[in-house]
Amino acid sequence: MADPAVADASVRGMVDNLRPAWHVETIERAPHGTDFVAILDIRTPAGPKQAVLKATTADLVDPVVARAEPRLLTLLDNETSIPVPTVYGSCDAHPEYPAPFTVPTFSSFQ
Question: What is the DSSP letter of 26?
Fold first, then answer.
């Protein structure tokens, strides 16, 4: 079950830490997963976006593994034709927010 303990203000602060010009408009917490996952509607200078905030909160995924995910996605996005989410930003450690955390594009596979 996803961690509901990450407050809306923290979600907004985490996104602001990575993308200061972005404004989080809505936060929808995902009911699944071992760590905190939220689907975000974001207003950016370039227009609206939908993204995901993933934060390591449950100690079930080693932080070393969690830090590797955005790097691997960025490598695959830049160097291959494999369709992967674009990583808008990631943070390995933070004194105030659960970390590592990352913000990739939202993809709906229906």
Answer: E
Long-range contacts of residues 75-84, Cβ cutoff 8 Å, at least 24 apart: none
Domain spans of the chain, in order of start: 8-104
87 touches 104 (CB < 8 A)? yes
Local mean pLDDT, 10-residue blocks, the chain (110 residues): 74 98 97 89 98 90 89 96 96 95 82
The model's pTM is 0.87
Q: What is the 3-state secondary structure (H, E, C) of 46-107?
A: CEEEEEEEEECCCCCCCHHHHHHHHHHHHHHHHHCCCCCCCEEEEECCCCCCCCCEEEEECC
As its CATH architecture, domain 8-104 has 2-Layer Sandwich (3.30)
